[in-house]
Structure formats: C-alpha cells, structure tokens
Amino acid sequence: MLERQISILRSLLSTYSWPQQLAGILPLSALIDFLDVPHALHIFELTGCIPLWCWPVTPSGSRLLLSPHSFEEPCCLDKFGNSQSLICLDGRYGDMYNAASPETLRLCLDTAPRTFIVNDHRNMLQDNPRPQNLTVVHVSRLANAGKPRSSWILLGASTVGWVLLLGLIIAMIILQCYVSAAFLLVIPATGFVIYITRGGDPPTLWVTSGSNYNRLVVAALHMNETDWLAFYGETTIVNALLNRPLRMKRFSKANHWVFSVALRLLILGQWVLAIGAASDQSWDAYIISFWIVLCIFSNIFVFSTHRCCKDWLEQSASFRLERIETKLSSRRALLNTLVALNPDTIPYDPVTMKDIQDGPFPGSLTWIDPILKRCAERTMWEEATWMAMTAKPDGKQQANKNGHANIGGTEPPSWSKGYIQYYWCKFIPEGIAMADNIRKVGHLSGRFVK
User: Fold this and answer.
1) Vertex 280: Cα angle to 274 and 284 (nearest 5)
2) Which helix (H) or strand (E) holds 437?
3) In 94, 142, 158, 412, which residue has its Cα 20 to 30 A from 419's Cα atom?
4) What is the pLDDT of residues 310-355, one digit of tens each?
5) Coil, strand, or helix at residue 13?
6) Tens digits of residue pLDDT in 168-182
C-alpha cells in the first residue's frame, strides 16, 4: 500500500514537464540569491538567537565561516573592512578614533525609540545649501538587567522549527526521499559546528565601574557628512560602547582543526545534496527548497535583527539607547548645537561644584579640528559662542531667541556687537536654542549622571 502511494506521488512530477524543470532550478537559486549568511552570522555571534536548524550556507558565506579567526576576535561584520567604519570625536579631550563595533552599533540604533524635534528657527526659512541632520543618542544604564536569556517568542519559534524538522525527516524517510532527509540532517549538524566555532555566551561591554559624569562623543562616516550622531551618556558606558571592542565569550577550543574540517565537509555536503536533488528533479528538490525558504523567512521575520538586538541590549549589554533627531540649517548651526550640548564645554570647580565662566574647558573644543580647522576667524567664532552661552538673558536676548540682527525691528543681543558682520553669527542662537530643546526633550541630565 505504501509503495503504491509513493509511486503515485512520484508520478505527479512526470505528468507535466514544468514541475520537473522547476525542481531543477529551485534549490540552487534559493541557496545563491536569498541567503544572507554574513548578516545571520553576525547576529548569531552577537546574540546567539539563530537556531541550529537555520544554517543553509552559500559559497560566499562559506568563505566567511571558514576564514581564520581568533578567540577574542569581534563579531564578523565589526571587523575593519567588513562594514562601513564610523569616525568618533571625543567631546572632552578631542581624541579621534574609529568605532570599535560599527555594525553592532548600527543594528542597535535601529532598535532604539525615536523622537523628532522640529527646528522652527528663522534660519530654516532661508535657502541654505547644506542642512545638517543630527541624531543625539542618549545612552543610559539598565539597573535591573537580568541574566542573558532569549525571549519566549524566540524560544517558541525555535521549538516549532525543531518539531517541524524532525517531522520532515521522518516523513522523508518513510517516503523514500533520502536525499532531502540527508540534507535536513546536515543542516543542524552544520549549525552545531558553527555554534562550537563561533558561538558561546553573548558578548558584553567592558564596563568595570560606573561614573558620575556624562560624556558627548560625535560620530559620522566622514568629516564632510551631513548626517551626524552624538552619543550622550555616562562616560564609562559611552567609552565602552564606542572605543572598546565587545568582550567576546567564545569556547576555548573553537579553533581546533577538527571543527574546521568538519565544517568544510558539512558545507560541501549541503551543496552536493542540493545539486543532486536538482539534477534528479524529484520531490527532494522541493523539500530542500522549502527548508531553505523557511530559514530565509525565519531570519527576516522571526529571528529578526530588531528583536534579537533588543534582547541583547536589555539582557546582556544592560544599557538602553534613545534617539532624538532634528535638522539644523547649516554646518555652523550643527557645531554650535554640539558645543552647547557638550557637558564638558563649560569647566567647573570640583570644590564648589559651580561652573567657571573664565573660558571653555581646555581641549573641549579640540574635537572640532577635523571638521573646522583652527584659524583667526574660528577663534572669533569660539569667543562669540562662549559669550552667547554664558550671557545672562535679558529682554533683548529673549526677544532674539529665534533670531538676531535687526530683523523685525529688534536689536541684536549684546554679545553679537563685535561679530554681527560675520555670516556665522546668526547660527549661534539657533545652535544654543536647539541644544536647550534637545536637553529638555531627551531628559539629558547635564554634567552629572542622575
């Protein structure tokens, strides 16, 4: 009886020519075109959320998986050259460096809640050639973070996948579809070896102790960018997030040659079985294609970047990100916003805990050097900015909060008397006003952590 049913099932493909032709195309096209192994490997190294049954591997993915790597090597896409680097400028000392984990940083930023602040300054009504986009990222510590664990959704989806895999293997053996049954056995075996060589406990930040001070770090892809990031938060967390690589926790025997050979054989086995099913043009090709498509959809919709990175931030990294976005009218308005927002711009007396009004903290404006070189006019701009930031508000300045310089009959503020002839003077009030709005909307605590 079973033999008769199997014979009928196989005859369905030979009735028409197109099902057989489709069976010869599907496995290879699915493997080559749709699987994003580098991205899946990065998420797996970062969060450990990708289950073992979700590891069909493409040729490009095999080159990445089989490449030499060390025990403390960062996640694959965080390695220099594997993704776009991010240049960081320290707001206190002016140090310039590349972000240690740029791709992880981008993935985590995509999960952060976003608030947009409308810039209604009159400068925005003018036709400025280069408006600037600014995203202030508020970094804060999670005090009640628990032990690393996956969410119930991910655990449930992984369990369903294992049940489905086991059911398909049994069904394929009963239906004598041995090629697809072998493929379904090779997939979790490949995942197991990848887990041994690339897995382990989720990485964490190198944060040894807390700090009472906040820090601002400016970041961009390059210094002629129009999209800027400003990370604002506790000094130790911001420094660990941007300047130090993640603390990897891989298995001590991950680089043993036995696992490298086993992974090569398993990846080769995947391709041999997929090519064999395609050449045979049987139901094996459809089962293999179905499982590959299932893995693709699982990586996109179930074990998604947003869900996995959000779990990692809360459970393993123990910090939270919030984005405050706005648009500035020009590069000078951007710089004035960042200078006014920087908690290290104005020095303070550690004894009296009061601000010192003699001048900016030494080195607190050095981070501007890669963007705007030092010259006589920049010195005047710094002086005007300092005077505007420390000037006591009066009736005239309050009337000029959204502008300056004899527009609408109002007199210019007192600090601008010697600088009114320079084009950048009108951008100083805009930057200071936007910094105040960002500080208020984002609940930024200023110099000290609260």
Assistant:
1) 55
2) helix 427-441
3) 94
4) 889 988 888 899 999 999 999 999 999 999 999 999 888 888 778 8
5) helix
6) 999 999 888 899 999
**Cβ atoms 149, 308 nearer than 8 A:** no
Query: CA nearest 220: which of 87, 93, 29?
Result: 87
Give residue for tokens 């995509």.
110
Question: What is d(CA 113, CA 133) in angstroms, rounded to the nearest whole number?
Answer: 17
Burial readout 22-35 (b: 16 or more C-beta within 10 A, e: otherwise)? bbbebbbebbeebb
**DSSP character at residue 228:** E
Tell me how long the chain is.
450
CA gyration radius, the chain: 29
Residue among 190, 165, 179 at smallest CA distance from 40: 190
Predicted TM-score (pTM) of this structure: 0.88
Distances (CA, A) of 168 to 33, 42, 174, 178, 398: 24, 28, 10, 11, 73
Phi, psi (rounded to 5 degrees) for 315: -95, -40
Please list the residues that pair with 135 across neighbouring strands: 229, 325
Amino acid at 296: I
